[in-house]
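Fold this sequence, please.
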Amino acid sequence: MTDELPDHIPAWQRRIAEAHARHPIVRRPRLRQRFAAFASARPEDHILDVLTGPGYNAFAFARRTKHVTAVDSRRHLLEMARRQMEKRRLHNVAITRADPTDLPVPDASFEIVTSAAAVHHFAAPQQAVAEMVRVCAPGGKVVIEAMVASEQV
């Protein structure tokens, strides 16, 4: 857990995060499953999901792999992920609070390191991706899904 991260989350931010997590486009189980398939996740793999948010990406990988570690720096989103994990009765997911630029895991710990629709939330994207590469095992994969939106809305 990263001690420097704020513990108090204003109520308005919590409400926005919860509404975002409930939105059908965010949850999209079929898209999450396709992402796990695209990453070629295998039953023996250990996965790290960076900035997991409410955990939907981590849960898709949990159904295919041995173990998933889901990290996020935002306590209120991790609380949501824990509730969803319990609701889904998943026992192979560990949820941890961590800064994506300083992951509290040893080098080469995971076969697949992933982040889905979260890169735009990284305060320091280059550092976060460097950390993802550091914790990825030799021959493993860093798989990132990013959102692209028109600036001409």
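Confidence is low (pLDDT under 50) at residues 1-5. The longest helix spans residues 75-88.
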